[in-house]
Amino acid sequence: DAGFLVRPNLYWFATNTSSTVASDDSDGAFPATNTTKIAWTEEVCSHQSVFVFGSDTLRIDRAGLYKFTYNVTLGINNGSNRTEGGVAIIKDPSGSPSVVDGSVTSTYNRFVEGGGLASRGTACATVVINVAAN
Questions:
Q1: Half-sphere exposure of residue 65, counting CA atoms within 13 Å on the CB side?
Q2: Is the predicted pLDDT of residue 6 greater than 70, yes or no?
Q3: What are the tens digits of pLDDT across the range 64-84?
Q4: Would the N or C end of the chain have less CB density within 10 A of its end CB?
């Protein structure tokens, strides 16, 4: 009676199981300067009519509040130094990419010398976004 409409749970889940190697060791800036795009593979989609995935881009066809959660593990695979990696969700509604507010996080990595083991760190973020259709 209060005007609320109960909707079924919508969910979309993707993973990346291969290494993504950065092509540039310069300082980067979001959304597109000296950055590397992480390739995804769609794993589960509850509603193909709502979540449309292709070319590493997720389009949401129904407006509403959505919770986005991600974690990305970054590592150094050579050298002997310290580095920081930054991760963000990028939106591109009209061909002009920008960072989703609250989605930027980072890792600090230091190479482990002698054992050949890469230093790895995981960056995580959760944001709630009011998404427009398409």
A1: 3
A2: no
A3: 989 999 998 887 766 667 778
A4: N
Distance of CA 68 to the CA centre of its chain: 9
Task: Tell me what the mean pLDDT of segment 119-133 comes to.
Answer: 89
CB environment 14-49: b (16+ within 10 A), e (fewer) = beeeeeeeeeeeeeeebbeeebeeeeeeeeebeeee
Cα 20-27-77 angle, rounded to 5 deg: 40
pTM of the entire predicted model: 0.75
HEC sequence for 71-134: EEEEEECCCCCEEEEEECCEECCCCCCEECCCCCEEEEEECECCCCECEEEEEEEEEEEEECCC
- Measured CA to CA, the distance from residue 22 to residue 87 in angstroms comes to 13
**Tokens, residue 92:** 């591109």
Q: What percent of the chain has pLDDT over 70?
A: 84
